[in-house]
Amino acid sequence: MLIDVPPQMHERMACSIAASVKYQVPADILLAVAEQEGGRPGLWVPNTNGTFDVGSMQFNTAYLADLRKYGITAADVAKPGCFSYLLAAQRLQGHLRYDTGDKWTRAANYHSRTPKYNAPYRAALIRRAAKWNAWLQVSFPGYYMTGLIAR
Q1: Containing domain of residue 88, as a range?
Q2: What total of structural domains would you count in the chain?
Q3: Which of 31, 32, 33, 52 keeps 20 to 30 A from 13, CA to CA?
């Protein structure tokens, strides 16, 4: 239930849960990524490689080249609403399904595949996902929204 979270987090919570259902990504992991990224609508953070992390899910502009054929722009990702969460869930789904390593390393690939950046992000995701797992079980009893089907 969203009543037990601050109003400024309602979009993050509702959009993360909806995107996790659509792309069959565990909600606890997507919520952990959203919290770890710490983005917000309209936020553009420059990276040292010339790309930007954009919007609520800090979606990297390097990934937008493949989406340009669908008319998706960084401005679209920066807007409020669930679109950035849907893109992030789709990308996270790909990492969880096709990358190598344990599920947490694959999930942390959302941030970076480089081990020195992946490892601390991975550790933070594990902590954050445990918190969100507990919240989801209390808030949505009877619904399977956590974990990951082994491949």
Answers
A1: 2-40+81-139
A2: 1
A3: 52
